[in-house]
Amino acid sequence: MTARLRLDAARCTGHGRCYAVAPDLLSDDEEGFVEQRGTDLPVPAPLLGQAAEAESACPEMAITLLGETSESTSPGREP
Asked: Disulfide-capable partner of 51 in 1, 40, 43, 79 (CB 3.0 to 4.6 Å)?
């Protein structure tokens, strides 16, 4: 199992911080929301740092990084 980035469409309010810190993983749509919202996106190993930064940057906690050994890499955050 590979790491995944879960993007909760209901929580996303379009701050844009996620795709600013993870440009190799995420992009914006025409309304300024993360284009991949509502999906679980596979994260290649070389981009794990950007995925973690995107999770940390989201003020709405709409992003959760799910890893190989545990469901969430950030224990204090709700999925």
From this structure: 43
What tokens appear for 43 in the block? Answer: 């994260």
Residues 32-41 as b or e (16 or more Cβ within 10 Å = b): ebbebbeeeb
Stated pTM of the model: 0.80
Cα 74 to Cα 65: distance, rounded to the nearest angstrom: 8
Q: Tabulate helix, strand, coil % of the chain (nearest 5).
A: 25, 15, 60
Strand (E) positions, the chain? 4-7, 40-42, 63-66
Q: Which residue has the tokens 């981009």?
A: 47
